[in-house]
User: Fold these one by one.
Assistant:
Number 1:
Amino acid sequence: MSDKTLDRVASATPPPVARKIRGLSDRAIAWIFVAPTIFLLLAINIFPLIWTIRLSFTNYKANRIGREVKEIGFRNYERILTDSDIWLNMQATAHFLIWTIFFQVLIGFALAWLINKKFKGNDLWTTIIVLPMMLSPAVVGNFWKFLYQPQIGLFNYIIAFFTGKEPSSFQMLGEVNLAPWSIVIVDTWMWTPFVMLICLAGLRSIPDYIYEAAEIDRASKLRQFFTITIPMVLPFLMLAVLFRGIENFKMFDLVVQLTGGGPGSTTELTSINLKREAFEKWRTGYASAYAIILFVTVFGLASIYVKALNKVKER
Amino acid sequence: MSSFSVNEPSVRTKWFAGTLVILYAIITMIPLVWIAMTGFKSPADAISYPPKYIIGSDSDAGFQPTLEGYVNLFTTRTRQTQDYLEANPPESWADEIVRKYDMVIVGPSKFGERFLNSVIIGFGSTFLSVFLGTLAAYAFSRFKIPLADDLLFFILSTRMMPPIAVAIPIFLMFRNLGLSDTHLGMILLYTAVNISLAVWLLKSFIDGIPTEYEEAALIDGYTRFQAFYKVVLPQAATGIASTAIFCLIFAWNEYAFAVLLTTANAQTAPPFIPTIIGIGGLDWPAIAAGVTLFLLPVMVFTILLRKHLLRGITFGAVRK
């Protein structure tokens, strides 16, 4: 009975007032809806980050609970930035980052361009090509290790078949000059489809009439490619590079399963090195400083890159 | 595209493009096919040189398919004396397979448990992230929230952190709260990681739903909340479903947190699979069998999901 009266009153009043009468205000609902997400992120992302910053100024070791914790200022940061081994890890990461992005952009764009020729059955083949990137990187690393085995592995067999080399004469994972390439190959196999998908979306976003206009102006196909296709796809391509860059800077699971950072420390990317410091040597304070340095690096590089990306988009 | 378009490639171009793409697709599939095949080989065939690749053939390049890898994956076995083996005939077909190596099955392996953990943690965190993500995405999409852009960027930026960087304090936090190596801890953790994707993706889906429907519902006397779950939710169903599958795939594939924060009770399959050891080294057929079983669901989902793939992997930034 009272419900009906309320409804009648509500329908006679202007909407904002009506809403207040029936249940919560929009503003209250907005906060109720957003709060749990923000709370969860604060608890499991931001609070740990602040904790990491605090730990980075101490000599805390997580495996020795009773030990006295000392504030040591910037000593951890100094030690990391002057450590030549860490610069080697940075170099290994840079090598991995640059070459994977280079190959993935090259092959990914070429594939997208070919698929965009709309041959029969291109949807099916696109789906098949996309499969590797949806798989678990750790598990992928694990089975590529099997393919890379020098005597029994399929990879060595196929290379040997085409080059006439002895399949046991080279070890992709065991040789200092080959191991960095072994991780580049697997990452390229896995993530080229990602770049391809984004390029494909870029190619498909170009309206037909632009090419038609170019055709009327008698621009050659090659000229159309360089003055229409490339500039129009560039923002998409740059987005793909951003995503791949951030992901590969964090790279851990695939490489840890594949090479474990070896041989020696030739494929010891920064994340792997960080894990060693934090969870094997248990230098928690030192590793925290290391983590902060990595986070600032990736965040800084990404912000600069996003600025460049926005400039390209505006053009 | 009309057939008169100047951009319709010639038949020859299509043939050329098709051939190259199919060639790439075949090369890209070789490792996966090889792993699936290895799962059905005997340990000796799996490591033979030259490799054996013809199923059921007696020639040098052929191998007889066997379920040994799968049996080894799911069971633990012990070697027994000849007398014991003669006194106790094999109890099942699986037992019969391991008898070839003078062994008997003594119990299940940990693989089933780890697989189940993957399922529980995967579905639990997916449900939670989609539930919270839908609410937040609706609020960001429809209401004026102060600093909305900054909050959205904050949500996204949590993805830029290397997992190992947050793993240190999370490890300490979980240790203090008693959440280490528990399902609940992993579900909360994966939800926190996934929610950024869920919010961004769902916002892009909800933005695409015209506000007129809700306004009509509000005028008809629905409350905001009723309008949300009776009008908006049904229309966002496809978006919610594909977001859910992306969250599920992430949680399913995750390794770094799993290997650092779980050891036994809540360990998922990815850190477990590489530790499967057979007699005299890694048991490749059993590992291959585990890999195949583990990857199969994701492949099926990918094929089902192919239309929504792009949105999912780019946080809704690129729409087809």
Note: Chain B has a mean pLDDT of 86.
Number 2:
Amino acid sequence: MTASDVRDWDPGDGRHSTPSTTRPPAWSADLPPHPTADLPPVPSDRGSAAPDLFEVVEHFREGLVVCDATGVVRHVSPVAERLLPGVTPGELLSAAGVPGLSDGNAGGFSYRGRRLTARQVPLSGARCCWYVEDVTDSVGRADALLAERARSAFLAVVGDKLGNPLHPDRAAAAVVRLAVPTLAEVAVLVLAPRAGRARWWRASRADDETPMVDSGALAAAELPAAVADGLTGIEPHAVDWLVEQAIDAGLLPGLAGSAARVVPLPGRDAPVGVLLVARRATGWYDEADVELIRAFTARAGAALTTALLYRDQAEVADTLQASLLPVEPAEAAGVQWGTAYRPAQAGLRIGGDFYGSHRLADGGSVFFLGDVSGKGVEAAVLTGQLRQCLQALHRLESHPGRLLRLLNDALLETTQAHGQGRFATIVLGVARPQRDGGLTLTLAGGGHLPPLVLRASGEVESVPLRGMLIGVVPDPRVGEVTVRLAPGETCLLYSDGVTEARGGRRGDEQFGTERLVTALSGCQRMPAPALAERVEQITCDWLAHGDHDDIAVLALRATGPSGRESRHLHSVPTPADPDQQEETDA
Amino acid sequence: MTFSVSYVERDDGGARLRLAGELDLSSAPELSAAIDGLTAAGETRVLLDLTDLTFCDSTGMAVFVRGDNQAAAAGGWLRLTGAHGRVERVLRVTGLAEVLRYEPESVDPASRSAS
């Protein structure tokens, strides 16, 4: 074969084929076999000034393997010798067993620990040339870059998904769900034990996209040693028995022989939990994997810590809130109670209005309804103080006027210490059952709206009760009034949230006492709970907008003799002996 | 209705704040600031003119009480005058009208609430 052959065959510039001129293998059939022991010589007719192109080619980054038409290797360039030590001149190329050179499909392949790419270029005379390049380093760099990108993308998704979860259970489930499949086939999150129990969440790889998540709890003593270590903040290195321990503890069912790691989730002081990851398919966790798991657990730990902190605070708030809610009046002889309570900030469930009652040793009841200046939590805290004061003070003083002065002194100390001008208005009374089934109410006024009385006739009276707000001056004027309730009559205490409710046709008109009186006229037959509910209902109906002041209603109805008799039937199953009955009445 | 506070000098040298509109949770801080401003300027006798005040809730009353407590601590007082309608009613029901009643040229009102 001569240089002219090459030129004749190749319609290009007559020197070398370029990658873009790769031909389909079918070309070999068109030409007869033309074996030659020699390499295609460099075209010599290019002129003496032309460089020795063949020598130049020998020093390409790509190695060259030239085969004749029968597939026998005829030339191996020095670079190719180094890259493909199994390829020997004079032997069939296919016999060398180099995966990428066996057919016409050029591309990347691995050979003896290197990443190579090869492309085949047809030459004249059915010969062909393989250009082989070592791309190990660039592929490695690209792989590292892709892996890093994948890790960053994964951590970005993790950060996004964990976001700001305020519910610890949901955060825990999200953590394990995100860990599968990137970090593990099975991921188990074990939270730091609370009251001796460690709760866990587990995500297992399922056939479809979404991993299966389940959860449970273990006694702290049953935790695998490596998990217990992890919870103290040590990332366990000796993980020999980890899988077996975890299987024994029921955390990794059916995963014998898998690779596993335990990584703590950083918390505020101690870890908030540990993540146990296990996988079989991709094998042992290398340092890069563990780094990724640590980056993941750092994010997961932060999310869980926030969620747990929020839960703790919510629990505290719930407990305090419950303690600030009005307590339903204590059951008392001859009295039917009715209450309604609607705080201005409904979501808060507490407000500045309060009511309650306590039984007195003499068979009577002390009852009260009041309103602390301001709204929300601060007001609610003061209502709590007032209720607690009354709970203690009524044991020492059952006279309403004197009890109210004691309460004023106690409150004054608090309000003056805070210097916010806080005060309360209150109606405080003592109800004593009478033999006829009626009630005698001794009322003391502390600057609150005077109570209303629903008479048996259907009339509604306003009790002429005056007085001064409490918590402002050391010796307030306290008004006192005694009211007699006949059986079936009701006394109604309410807060200004009722009468100051704004609404009506114009939207800003106050509900007012007159409308309340009108709305209650003729309601004398209503049981106390229904009456209190009615007051709340008509107030809310009046309101034009959603917002309103705290609303509280306390109704006491004289139940009459029938109510007392029914109590006796309940408390004394056998016919009562007269002496005992006398004692109960007293 | 919007709330406003304006300052008026009194003949006897004390300070008078004229309140107009509705005094509630949203407007109380404005009055608080005005009273604090007078206190900071050394004024210990503050008279609030409620003639144009159309509404006052417990938050507003708390500002009165706080102002009076502050003034009393400095040997002075805070008093109310001119209340009518709903405002007069709420001050009367709560007894605050009595605590903070302004009685010009009779007895020194500070003597009544002094402990």
Note: Chain A touches chain B through 31 residues (CB under 8 Å).
